[in-house]
Amino acid sequence: MTSTSTTSSTSPIMIVGTVSCTGVAAWQSDVAYDGGDEITYGGDLWTVNYWSEADVPDGVSGAWANDGLCA
């Protein structure tokens, strides 16, 4: 009997390039965001994946997707 196993790991996705952040508001911890809303945080553009309030964009919640460095 032969046994095989596979291991997979997820790596952070690196965003290459810059995006326009003109007119996009900065993230605020006391604002509730709906899925698809965009904000700026730490010099990057972020899109919220689902309803979120007080989840830091670069945190571990998974609520935010980094769209790239603001131009």
Description:
- The protein has 71 residues and is an all-beta fold.
- Helix content is 0%, strand content 31%.
- The protein has a four-stranded mixed beta sheet with strand order 1-6-4-3, with no helix packed on it. A two-stranded antiparallel ribbon has the order 2-5.
Chain-wise SSE layout:
Blueprint: E1 18-19, E2 32-33, E3 38-41, E4 44-48, E5 52-53, E6 64-70
Parallel strand pairs: 1-6
Antiparallel strand pairs: 2-5, 3-4, 4-6
Question: Can you describe this structure in just a few lines?
Answer:
The chain is mainly beta. It has strands at residues 18-19, 32-33, 38-41, 44-48, 52-53, 64-70.
List descriptors:
single chain; four-stranded mixed beta sheet; 71 residues
| Helix-strand topology string | EEEEEE
Classify the secondary structure makeup into a structural class.
mainly beta
* Widest sheet: strand ordering: 1-6-4-3
Residue share in β-strands? 25-35%
Distance between the termini: 57 Å
Total strands: the figure is 6
Give the proportion of residues in helices.
Answer: under 10%
Rounded to the nearest angstrom, the radius of gyration is: 16 Å
